[in-house]
Amino acid sequence: MLLKRQEPPSSYKELSSYETTLLWCSDGWVYDPVAMKRRRFFTGDVFSMEEEAITRTSFSDVQYTEQVKIIVLSESPRVWIEQGEMFTQI
């Protein structure tokens, strides 16, 4: 999934929101235990992200934790705000 990072709008209508603790692990994935998904980010000419569902609830070798609020603005295309930054699927 290719992503575009942009400034969040001053007003928006949220579909849903949740608070979670992101778990940055040594395997290169960032785990979101609330959404039951894991993400891996790539940079280069275009910022991109790979995301997939997870079933496990225990994680080993956590390197860093980050408490965030995620606000979902749209599912198709996927648009969300995370810690003040807005991301749009392109």
Structure description:
This protein is mainly β and 90 residues long. It has one domain. 0% of the residues lie in helices and 59% in strands. The protein has no helices and 8 strands. It has strands at residues 3-6, 16-25, 30-32, 37-42, 48-53, 62-75, 78-82, 85-89. Strands 1-8-7-6-2-3-4-5 form an 8-stranded antiparallel β-sheet, with no helix packed on it. Strand 6 (62-75) and strand 7 (78-82) form a beta hairpin. The protein is globular and about 40 Å long.
Secondary-structure blueprint of this entry?
Blueprint: E1 3-6, E2 16-25, E3 30-32, E4 37-42, E5 48-53, E6 62-75, E7 78-82, E8 85-89
Antiparallel strand pairs: 1-8, 2-3, 2-6, 3-4, 4-5, 6-7, 7-8
List keywords for this structure.
90 residues, mainly beta, 8-stranded antiparallel beta sheet, 0% helix, 59% strand, globular
Q: Poorly predicted ranges (pLDDT <50, ≥5 residues)? A: none
- How would you name the oligomeric state of the polypeptide chains in this document? single chain
> What is the chain-wise order of helices and strands?
EEEEEEEE
Rg from alpha-carbon coordinates: 13 Å
Total E-strand runs: 8
Q: Return the domain count.
A: 1
Beta-strand percent range: over 45%
Mean pLDDT: 80
Total number of helical segments?
0
Span from first to last CA? Answer: 7 Å
Globally, the shape reads globular
